[in-house]
Design goal:
The complex is a heterodimer of chains A (186) and B (209).
Chain A: H1 13-21, H2 25-45, H3 50-67, H4 77-99, H5 124-132, H6 135-146, H7 153-160, H8 164-181
Chain B: H1 11-18, H2 24-35, H3 39-57, H4 65-78, E1 86-89, E2 91-95, E3 118-124, E4 127-136, E5 139-147, E6 157-162, E7 165-169, E8 177-183, E9 187-193, E10 197-202
Parallel strand pairs in B: 1-10
Antiparallel strand pairs in B: 2-3, 3-4, 4-5, 5-8, 6-7, 6-9, 9-10
Helix pairs in contact in B: 1-3
Classes of the chains: A mainly alpha (186), B alpha+beta (209).
Chain lengths: 186, 209
C-alpha cells in the first residue's frame, strides 16, 4: 500500500526513516528499494537458499520495523541492517545444518556452492555505499555493474526513460559520487 | 600564460579506458597520458579497477516479489491496518480432460502414465485459479496463475502436498503466476497464501487420469 510518494530520487536515509516512523508506506517502500537487495544478497552469500534468504530478509526488516523508534543513528542504518541480516542468516544456516535438510531436487532452493561464496565480511561497505546513492544513480550503477546479466546501454536508456547518449556520462558521475561516499576506499 | 603540462584525464575517460570502451586511437592516447600520470590520476585508476573487480565478484540479487509484499503487509500491520487472514476452499470449475473438444489434445507432450498435460480451473470466492498439470519421468509440474481482485496482494506462496509431505514455491510474481516443480508423488492438495487470503485447493480425485 502506498500512501504518498516521498522520493524524488534524492532523499537521504534519514528522511525515509522519518517517513516510516510517521506511517508513510511510500517511504517504507523506498527504503526497501534501497536496502532489500543488500540484505537478500548478504543472506545468499552466507550460503542460504532462496527460501531461507527470503525469510532472513523478511525477519531483518521486521526487526527494523520493531526497532524503528529506538534507532538512534539513522546514518548507520545500512550497517545495522547488515549486522542483523548476517546474524539472522547465521542462525538460519545453523538451524538447517542441524536439521540436515536435503537440498531441493528441482534446484530452485539450492544454496550456492560453498566455494563460490566470497568472504562476506570484506566488502559489504561497497553495498552500503551503493545504498547511499540517490535512486537514479543507484539503479544505474546496480544495473550496469551488480546485475548478474547487465543490460546494454540501449536497454537501460529505454528502461530509465533517458536519452541513450546520457547513460555513459551519468554512470561516470554516479561512480564518482560513489567513490566520494566511500571516501576513496577500495 | 603559464603552461601546466598535459591536461589530467577526466574520471569518465579513465573509466571508459578501464572498461575497454575507447576506440584504439583514443585508448593509445590515454595510455600515454596515464604513463606519466600524477598521483591523483593513479589513485583514480586504482579505485576504478578495484571497483570493477569487486562489482563483478559480488553481484546483487533481488529478493523474490513475495518478500516485498510481506514487508508491505508488515508495515501496514504496524500502522494498525493489518487484515485478518481469510481462509477459502476452492471448487473445481473446469477440467480439460472432460472437455470433448480438448480430449484429443491432452496427451500431446505429457506422460501417458500420469495423464498430463491438462488444465484445471478452480474458483474460491471472487478468485479464479488456473493450474496446468504436466508430468515427466515420474514427477509432476504444477504451473498456474491466480486471478484475484486484490491488487495489493497479487504475489502468492504456493505449497503442494503429496504423500504426506510438501513442496513450496516462493517464486511467484506480481501477475499471480506460480510454478511448483519436481513433485515426486501425486499432488493431493494445493495451498495458496498471499498474507491476506489462504486458499485450499483439494486435488485428490482430480489428478488421476
Amino acid at each position: 500500500m502506498r500512501t504518498r510518494a516521498v522520493d524524488q530520487g534524492r532523499h537521504d536515509v534519514s528522511e525515509l526513516l522519518t517517513g516510516c516512523r510517521q506511517g508513510d508506506a511510500g517511504a517504507w517502500d523506498l527504503l526497501l528499494d534501497r536496502f532489500e537487495p543488500l540484505v537478500f544478497t548478504i543472506a545468499r552469500r552466507e550460503g542460504l537458499g532462496m527460501e531461507d534468504a527470503a525469510d532472513v530478509t523478511q525477519t531483518t526488516f521486521e526487526a527494523l520495523l520493531a526497532q524503528l523508534d529506538r534507532i538512534q543513528d539513522d546514518g548507520q542504518i545500512s550497517y545495522w541492517l547488515m549486522t542483523v541480516a548476517r546474524r539472522q542468516a547465521w542462525r538460519q544456516r545453523t538451524r538447517r545444518q542441524r536439521e540436515r535438510l536435503e537440498p531441493e531436487p528441482n534446484g530452485r532452493d539450492q544454496a550456492p556452492e560453498l566455494g563460490a561464496i566470497p568472504d562476506v565480511g570484506t566488502n559489504l561497505w561497497l553495498y552500503a555505499g551503493l545504498a547511499e546513492l540517490d535512486a537514479p544513480c543507484r539503479e544505474l550503477i546496480q544495473s550496469l555493474y551488480f546485475a548478474p546479466q547487465p543490460p546494454s546501454y540501449a536497454e537501460l536508456a529505454d528502461r530509465m526513460g533517458r536519452p541513450l547518449g546520457s547513460i555513459g556520462p551519468t554512470r561516470a558521475r554516479c561512480l564518482r559520487r560513489l567513490r566520494e561516499l566511500l571516501r576513496d576506499a577500495l | 600564460m603559464t603552461s601546466h603540462g598535459p591536461a589530467r584525464p577526466t574520471f569518465r575517460q579513465l573509466l571508459e579506458w578501464a572498461e575497454g570502451r575507447l576506440d584504439p586511437q583514443a585508448a593509445a592516447r590515454l595510455e600515454e597520458q596515464v604513463a606519466g600520470a600524477d598521483e591523483e590520476t593513479r589513485r583514480t585508476i586504482t579505485w576504478i579497477r578495484s571497483f570493477l573487480e569487486e562489482s563483478r565478484r559480488q553481484p546483487l540479487e533481488g529478493a523474490p516479489p513475495i518478500v516485498r509484499q510481506r514487508l508491505r503487509q508488515a508495515f501496514a500491520g504496524r500502522a494498525g491496518a493489518a487484515q485478518e487472514v481469510e481462509r477459502l476452499v476452492a471448487e473445481l470449475t473446469f477440467d480439460s480432460r472432460l472437455d470433448p473438444e480438448l480430449v484429443g489434445v491432452r496427451t500431446v507432450s505429457g506422460d501417458e502414465e500420469y495423464g498430463g498435460p491438462y488444465q484445471l480451473a478452480f474458483r474460491a470466492g471472487a478468485i479464479d485459479i488456473l493450474v496446468d498439470v504436466s508430468a515427466s519421468s515420474g514427477t509432476y509440474l504444477l504451473e498456474g496463475q491466480v486471478f484475484a481482485p486484490d491488487q495489493a496482494a497479487e504475489v502468492w506462496v504456493v505449497t503442494a502436498e503429496y504423500a504426506g509431505t510438501t513442496r513450496t514455491d516462493i517464486g511467484g510474481d506480481e501477475l499471480g503466476s506460480f510454478s511448483v516443480a519436481g513433485i515426486p508423488g501425486v499432488p493431493q492438495r494445493l495451498s495458496l497464501s498471499n498474507g491476506v487470503l489462504e486458499i485450499d485447493i483439494p486435488l485428490a480425485g482430480t489428478m488421476e487420469g
